[in-house]
Design brief:
The chain has 14 helices and 11 strands. By secondary structure, the protein is an alpha/beta fold. The chain has a 7-stranded mixed sheet with strand order 5-2-1-6-7-11-10, with helices on both faces. Helix 1 links the parallel strand 1 and strand 2. Helix 1 crosses helix 7 and helix 6 packs antiparallel against helix 7. The longest helix is centred in the N-terminal third of the chain and has 22 residues. The chain is globular, with a radius of gyration of 23 Å.
Length: 327
Amino acid sequence: MPKVYIVAYEGCYAGSLVNPQDLYLVANSHWREQYKRQEGMFEWQVLSEDGGAVTTASGLRIAVDGPLTELPTDSIVVVPAMNYPGGRAFTHKLDAMRGIIDWLGRQYHNGCIICTQCTSSFVLAETGLLAGLSATTSWWLAEQFQQRYPDIRLNAGKLVVEEPRLITGGANGAEMLTALLLVERYMGKAVASLCAKTLLVDTNLTQQAPYLILPRQQTHNDSLVLSVQDSLEKNLCAPFSLDKLAKEHHVSSRTLMRRFKEAVGDTPNSYLQNLRIEAAKKLLESTGLSAEMVMQRIGYVDISSFNRLFQRKTGLTPRAYRQKFSH
């Protein structure tokens, strides 16, 4: 059984730091009951960059077991999530964590497994280890992640994404699912199932897609594209025509398509689909309109096409979405 090392740092979430430790503790209890032995149980330590205590985002002071050091091959490194203080402050925070980031890179190249979730997926991305690979992060940080790391295949709809020796989790709380994944890998499905039942970890929750707010992507400075986006939002139900949209904005269809994709990273039609699905989600949450009436309100005429698009974007059928989120 490889040893687990949890990296504590200033401003990390207390729950993200300690919850996996509770799960390892429960896993050990079930392991002893199932197999009547001490061997093969989880052991873990909490480390900080200099070995000193850290203060979590909520103000809890956490003592640690020691400083960052070179770890044995096959060790498991867990990086808890941190509070997100806003774009510029978050960039400064990542810059200040360069020592931890460089250390993570060395441990990976020494054969360690690295687990992150939510905002700590950014910390892992900063190492460059995820370039060309898939990852996830908190759904509401998807746009920032994609803009900052265009060479990473972001799958923000999934709650846990696994690459060889690299595990990323979604929104804060996903640390329990990533820890459970390790329990299943090293102790088996039976112990993992008992842990999930003991701690009420919902193993059916594997998707963030139903919670995803499809981004409006208006952080660029292209006045033409901003005007087109505004037009699409104001004419949500109108049939889409690229030629008509280009003519209204006095550019060619080719120019409009090129500038829109450069600024937004998507086509105008796909962007409109996102707007319509967001509108449909709000109607399903707050009204008693049937799926067909919702479809008509947002400009669709074929219920099958609407249902397929809605499920592709959210991971749920309109009916299932309403059952989950209606007020």
